[in-house]
Amino acid sequence: xxxxxxxxxxxxxxxxxxxxxxxxxxxxxxxxxxxxxxxxxxxxxxxxxxxxxxxxxxxxxxxxxxxxxxxxxxxxxxxxxxxxxxxxxxxxxxxxxxxxxxxxxxxxxxxxxxxxxxxxxxxxxxxxxxxxxxxxxxxxxxxxxxxxxxxxxxxxxxxxxxxxxxxxxxxxxxxxxxxxxxxxxxxxxxxxxxxxxxxxxxxxxxxxx
Amino acid sequence: xxxxxxxxxxxxxxxxxxxxxxxxxxxxxxxxxxxxxxxxxxxxxxxxxxxxxxxxxxxxxxxxxxxxxxxxxxxxxxxxxxxxxxxxxxxxxxxxxxxxxxxxxxxxxxxxxxxxxxxxxxxxxxxxxxxxxxxxxxxxxxxxxxxxxxxxxxxxxxxxxxxxxxxxxxxxxxxxxxxxxxxxxxxxxxxxxxxxxxxxxxxxxxxxx
Lengths: 209, 209
Prior knowledge:
Strand content of chain A: 15-25%
Oligomer: homodimer
């Protein structure tokens, strides 16, 4: 299938939302849906939806709408969900444990291979059958296991160092929860979840400006 | 101070990042900074920075740059951080506990007033001196305590119901961690942290499309 190049981040960030809604339609045995109906559910305009999906190919049919199962499959594949991701979590504090316990990720194809922490009180404990290892094992582990994704849940001071170790050992994707912007070469993909940035956006909006 | 109306969400979402960097400069006793230096640190272009900050007033001085302390104070106030936010967390699972334990929020002026959960094994336990209460107490609690912010950390199925209860009882700001889009009147501000959306953006990027 032909895809346009240079798809904007705004479009890309809407894709997971399409995926979420299509999953729901699948669960509810919806076979097809018009861009108008999809628009009412998802909250984007019908024209926005057509434009977004056109970036990735020729979905939908005039007068028929979208075949839910086909579109779901296609978006899964665009999002790279037809693959498995070997994942390590570094930092087994509250956020790290929350991520490790988040069963939704299994369903999306993420395989939690290992968890690392610096705290000896945590090492040896298990979260959903995955043992928390001493952080000193991280490098060794990465050498002998092909890991695609590293989740960084350490304090801000250690985040860049952890990021460097992950990248030096072949990890290409970083999901960063530390409240700091990490530096890496361009071929490394970093996605930040800056919780306090999100909260401050909310307080801004709350103050009616 | 005069502020332009209709400031775009893109600008608003950059503000917390300015705030984060200015906090760091304050810690490191930096008194003033040029838009060029700020640009190198923060990764936005100098012209972007001037444009962003101009939305909120006349900061910075030709040839001098920005006074760090003044700009920090001003952005704190724009973000509404000169106020205190009474906060409740609904859902004391992994994410709820992680949020409750996140001490950074105290520093930003968030006061955790109560935590609620449906699980009797959790009620009565304390997180940082705040007791987890039965969710049946939520409505009553909101009636007798002025709460500004509700953090929703319940499963997707209960999220809208919890949101409705919070709003009916005067909560104006919702920080939503449930993987679902909540519906509310326009005067209610909802900020979503959709973790799986963030992760799927990363897998998209990883697949080099």
